[in-house]
Amino acid sequence: TFFTAGVKEVRAWTVRNGSTAPQAAGAIHSDFEKGFIRVELMKFKDFIQYKSETACRDAGKLAIEGKEYIVEDGDIMHFRFNV
Questions:
Q1: What is the rounded distance in angstroms from the CA atom of residue 58 to the CA atom of residue 3?
Q2: What is the Cα–Cα distance from 37 to 41, expressed in whole angstroms?
Q3: Which of 11, 12, 41, 62 lies in disulfide reach of 57, CB 3.0 to 4.6 Å?
Q4: pLDDT-based confidence at 72, cuts 50/70/90?
């Protein structure tokens, strides 16, 4: 399970164990998978500890990953894509 979060909505998404970042993006919409560029992510436990995305970034807990990244349980992900 990974999460996406925006101003209006936080959502949990379920993917198979071993899924790559583009496959996870495809769980949201097929265009996300086709045009995948990269994913910005933080761990749920880090978000709880630091209390905001900005604080996670300042603490160096925000990661940028590519197509080979294997999604881990509790990832909070922001997908970058181009269609």
A1: 21
A2: 13
A3: 62
A4: very high
Q: Which two tokens stand for residue 12?
A: 């949990």
DSSP secondary structure letter of residue 56:
H
Whether residue 52 lies inside any domain: the answer is yes
- Total domain count for the chain? 1
Q: Which two tokens stand for residue 5?
A: 């979060």
Q: Is 17 exposed, middle or buried (0-12, 13-18, 19+ CB in 10 A)?
A: exposed
Of all residues in the chain, the percent with pLDDT exceeding 90 is 96
Q: Determine the structural domain holding residue 11 and report its residue range.
A: 2-70
pLDDT at position 23 is 98
Asked whether residue 77 is assigned to any structural domain, the reply reads: no
What's residue 30's pLDDT? Answer: 97
Determine whether 42 is exposed, middle or buried from the number of CB atoms within 10 Å of its CB (0-12, 13-18, 19+).
buried
Single pTM value for the model: 0.93
